[in-house]
Structure formats: structure tokens, C-alpha cells
Amino acid sequence: MDLTLFYFPGACSRVTMTALEAAGVAYHDRLVNIRTDEQKSADYRRVNPKGKVPALAVDGRIMTENAAILVFLDRLFPAAGLLPHSDDPVAEIAPLSDLLWCSSTLHPAMRQIRAPDKFTTGDPAAVKADGMGKFAAEATRIAAGVDGRWWYGERWSIVDIYLFWLCNVAEKGGFPLHDYPAIIDHAARVRALPPLIRALDRERAGADRAGIEGTIY
Ligand SMILES: N[C@@H](CCC(=O)N[C@@H](CS)C(=O)NCC(=O)O)C(=O)O
């Protein structure tokens, strides 16, 4: 199977790249420079008409949306243990629910903090304050879920990586992450995970080749 990940260093494609690294599969990577709006170019829109990263080409067919790609990779590479599984249908769907929470609730709230000007032609400070409030409510939930444990208990999952990425970028946008020591401790544990380390190295190599500086690591 031929896999190509369309990504940008520091973007949410970091979660997908970490999943590919955890799977131990060979894949191509293709940097899409969202700083220069390459994601909106005609060439990239032919790849992903939504104009976003990540996108994953699977034997030339395109898959979009982080949550969907992560579920796909989990099914394709079960030995990687990206998500937990259960015979109980309600428990089985919980990881999908968490991935969608990350992409549809946490990601927009984080983005309001990090890039409030993208949401309004008016006062970005009001958008940012609103994002801070929304993210704080969710951070309380995250902190409780990762306090001395991984999100699903004893073993890390790709949801831990997603939560780490979201909190890390929110912090860079000014969110007071140090008010949540359990999240800080979780971040230190995530940073020591070999698949994340490999993904960060691969992102760094791509950023260096493209001359991109100031990426959030
Ligand atoms: N719903 C999409 C959102 C993807 C997304 O917002 N990606 C960002 C990078 S983190 C992006 O491509 N931004 C460029 C833009 O919005 O123009 C997903 O979860 O995969």
C-alpha cells in the first residue's frame, strides 16, 4: 500500500504522522506550506478540496479529517494499538467520540486562542477571551482524564497525542497551561514516546528542507 501524508510542521497533521510512526509503516510525506496558503492553491485543492492538512493518500485515493484517518490507521495497523477496543459496543465507540471531541470542540477553541483574527473582522481580543473560556472548561476535563494516567488508563493512545498537541498549541497562544499540573505532567510523558519523537524529527527535517522557521515543537 502506498501512503502519502500531506502535512505541515506543528499542525494537527502531527497527530496523524505520529500514528504512522507508531504503525512503523513506510510512507511518503509532502509538506503543504500553510504559512503561504499553499493549502488553498489549485494544485493542493486537487488533492484535498477542503484546503486543509492532514490528508492521506492511500494508493492515490484521498482521505481527509484527522479523526477518520486515525480510525482508518487503527484498523489497518491493529498491532500499533492506536486506540483501545472492546466487545461492548458502547465502550467500542468511546474513542471515536473522543477523537471527534478533539477535532470538533477542542481544535476550534484552541484556534480561537491561537488565531483569533481568523474568526472576526471585529475585535480579536473578544474572540480570544471566548476561546480561553471554552478551552479552560475542556482543560479541566483533560486534566482529570490524564492525572497520573494515560487517557485510557495504562497504555498511551493516539488520543493522548491529540490532547498533547491541542494543549501545546493553546499554551503557545497564551493559554495558562501551568494552572493544570496534570496536563504538564502528561505532556512530559507524551514527549518521551518514541513515535512522537520520530514524528517531530521528521517534521523538523521537512521544515529545514523548506526553510520554515518558528514551528511549535
Ligand atoms: N477538521 C479538520 C481540520 C483540519 C485543520 O483545520 N487543519 C489546519 C491545520 S491544524 C489547516 O489545514 N489549516 C489551514 C487553513 O485552515 O487554511 C481535521 O480535523 O482534520
From TrEMBL:
Xref: Gene3D superfamilies: 1.20.1050.10, Glutaredoxin (3.40.30.10)
Domain (GST N-terminal) spans 1-81
Enumerate the InterPro entries for this protein.
Glutathione-S-Trfase_C_sf (IPR036282), Glutathione_S-Trfase (IPR040079), Glutathione_S-Trfase_N (IPR004045), Thioredoxin-like_sf (IPR036249)
Q: Name one Pfam family in it.
A: GST_N_2
Which named protein is this? Answer: Glutathione S-transferase family protein
